[in-house]
Amino acid sequence: MTSATKTSFQELRFSTSDGLQLYARDYGNGDPRTAGTLPIVCLPGLSRNSRDFHLLAMRLSTHPENPHRVIALDYRGRGFSDWDTDKSRYQLPVEAEDVLCACAAFDVTRAIFIGTSRGGLILHLLAAMRPALLAAIVLNDIGPVIEIAGLLQIRRYLEAQPTLHSWDEAVESLKRVHGPAFPSLEEPDWRDMADAIFRDKDGMIVADFDPALIEPLKNLDADMPVPDLWALYQGFQTMPLMAIRGENSSILSRATFAEMAKRHPHMTLVNAVGQGHAPLLHRPDLLDEITAFIGRIL
User: Could you tell me which residues come within 8 angstroms of residue 67 by beta carbon, excluding any fewer than 6 positions away?
Assistant: First the structure.
């Protein structure tokens, strides 16, 4: 089961500073129309990978009036990238450095970045580490304050991965877990989600990430304060910013969303109706908003 064909993108590999080989998909790089536009770099969530962005990347890279090269990454330990033997290196600063390695390998000196969940946290770091790299930012259901209840919910889901024998079982499993938060999704959306999250391995459908990624979440409890990133968020002040919040998000609260707008008055706010954490960006309403936002970036 797959919604992607390898003729629609190039498969690339690049080296990290500590020698791992990581994977990326490159859309639209061979189209001469994208040569004069800013590339778009897509960063996925904690346990997710480049496949999350396939449909979005297809549409942005083949837009009839304003096509862009789109690069989507698999972090270390996810998708087709190497797993790290040193599990302590599954952390945001290391992954931010990996993104910089990817940009250097693919000759990206300035880009529009789309960060879903953990990808958005990495962008908070990059705004401090390499602000000149960031031409514009799209934060997908993430902000400077993360709700502990949402993190605990993610931990429960990741720890309780069921045994799946078919893609139909994978789809039904996702519907049971995420259906209440995503009432707007249609059957093709669930199948695309399953294709992005799981992989067929020896006849079994398994989650496509190193289970060690969950380890840092195991020490969380409901009373634990989560450090905020407001100081790093200030780094976005000099660049165009769009923030998307899932209407039913458990990670990004309405209060934090409102405070983000207050601190960045020119930010574009988008509510993903009928979606939770994290919204599917290729849905028509969000695709239109993202395309319009990108069209305003010089």
Answer: 28, 31, 33, 34, 37, 60, 61
Q: What CATH number does residue 54 fall under?
A: 3.40.50.1820
- Does residue 41 lie within any of the structural domains? yes
Q: What's the rounded Cα separation, in Å, for the pair 198 and 163?
A: 12
Which residues touch 70 (CB under 8 Å, ≥6 apart)? Answer: 26, 27, 28, 39, 40, 41, 42, 53, 56, 57, 60, 61
- Write the CA distances from 171 to 7, 18, 181, 188, 281, integer angstroms: 26, 37, 15, 10, 19
Q: How far apart are CA 283 and CA 93, in angstroms?
A: 31
Instruction: Taking the CA atoms of 51, 54, 60 and 62 in sequence, report the sign of the dihedral they define.
Output: positive
CA 211 to chain centre: 18
Contact between 142 and 52 under an 8 Å Cβ cutoff? The reply is no
Is residue 76 included in any domain, yes or no? yes
User: Does 155 map to a domain?
Assistant: no
Using one digit for the tens of pLDDT, what is the confidence trace for 51-104? 999 999 999 999 999 999 999 999 999 999 999 999 999 999 999 999 999 999
Asked whether 78 and 208 are in contact (CB, 8 A), the reply is: yes
pTM over 0.90: yes
pLDDT for the residue 5: 56
Residue 52, domain extent: 6-149+227-295
Residue 209 resides in a domain: no
β-pairing verdict for 204-207 and 198-201: antiparallel
